[in-house]
Write a structure and sequence with these properties.
There is one protein chain. The model has no long low-confidence stretch (mean pLDDT 97). This protein has two domains: 172 residues, Rossmann fold, CATH 3.40.50.620; 90 residues, Pantoate--beta-alanine Ligase, Chain: A,domain 2 (2-Layer Sandwich). The protein is built from twelve helices and nine strands. Helix content is 41%, strand content 18%. It starts with a strand and ends with a strand. The strands form two sheets. The chain has a six-stranded parallel β-sheet, with helices on both faces. By secondary structure, the chain is α/β, with parallel strands linked by helices. Bound molecules: adenosine monophosphate. Adenosine monophosphate binds next to helix 2 and strand 5.
């Protein structure tokens, strides 16, 4: 495994490997088992696996959140090596955003402007779209791997990849969960033991919605009430419990096809998100 810090070094490392396929797994580091599932999917499908580590400042709306974001590069490199990563691209901010940088990739409409886009500010998905575009152009992979846990991020990435005609296949891996059901996240380490048990109401709320929908309840207002009741019982006041079209993020009133159920909530000071798809294909 080699570690490179510049785009020039990355291109030089990949150029002799372009006779086979290249898979890119973008991350912000602080790697956990959820990231490992993406690395394994890439390792199984691609001849060369590239993982990027970059805590992208432009997608953070709160400076405190950016400052508090865990940085664990030595452990991340160990995990990457153990998962068979070939090339780690770990640039600094000046490499990604050189002096006079002035270009932004903006996805418009409900995909980028509602839910996470509304809560975290317009700039969040601009930051994500711009940095992922740069990572794709720097590595020109055949496949790029993302987690279903960040469903809105996936929708935004699919949108600009299609709109800009970027020649990459976006591969979405299922949300990896701890044994108790909590979606794995770098932020989970910030939860106290009490907060962690409170946080379990989030996957419980998604289960309650799935069960109610499977039992024939189709109005999303009633389904939302089930989820909110589950959360409130644990003392969690959600930022949103949303029922939207998984591709456009337009709100859905009744479950008549696939519906993305997305939850965001603060537990203590830690902001968590989770989601599931109901309504089948
Ligand atoms: P991050 O380092 O948080 O930016 O995440 C890097 C990638 O890993 C993103 O595509 C995430 O969606 C994905 N990811 C993070 N947590 C999980 C998880 N629990 N299950 C599946 N994918 C995940």
């Amino acid at each position: 495994m080699i570690v490179v810090r510049t785009v020039a070094e990355l291109r030089a490392a990949l150029s002799p490997r372009r006779d086979g396929t290249i898979g890119l797994v973008p991350t912000m580091g602080a790697l956990h088992e959820g990231h490992a599932t993406l690395l394994r999917a890439a390792r199984a499908a691609d001849d060369t696996v590239v993982m990027s580590i970059f805590v992208n400042p432009t997608q953070f709306n709160e400076q405190a959140d950016l400052a508090a974001y865990p940085r664990t590069e030595a452990a991340d490199l160990d995990l990457a090596e153990a998962e068979g990563v070939d090339v780690v691209f770990a640039p600094d901010a000046a490499e990604v955003y050189p002096r006079a940088f002035a270009t932004t990739v903006t996805v418009s409409g409900p995909i980028a402007e509602t839910l996470e886009g509304a809560e975290r500010g317009r700039g969040h998905f601009d930051g994500v779209a711009t940095v992922v575009t740069k990572l794709l152009l720097a590595s020109l992979p055949d496949h790029a791997y993302f987690g279903a846990k960040d469903a809105q991020q996936v929708a935004v990435i699919r949108r600009f990849v299609a709109d800009l005609g970027i020649p990459v296949k976006v591969v979405v891996c299922p949300t990896s969960r701890d044994a108790d059901g909590l979606a794995r996240s770098s932020r989970n380490t910030r939860l106290s033991p009490h907060e962690r048990s409170q946080a379990l109401a989030i996957p419980r709320a998604l289960d309650a919605v799935r069960d109610a929908a499977a039992g024939g309840l189709s109005g999303t207002g009633a389904l939302q009430a089930r989820a909110v009741a589950e959360l409130e019982a644990a003392g969690i006041h959600p930022e949103y419990v949303a029922f939207v079209d998984p591709e456009t993020f337009a709100p859905v009133a009744a479950v008549e096809g696939p519906v993305l159920v997305a939850i965001a909530a603060r537990v203590g000071t830690t902001r968590l998100i989770d989601n599931t798809v109901i309504g089948g294909a």
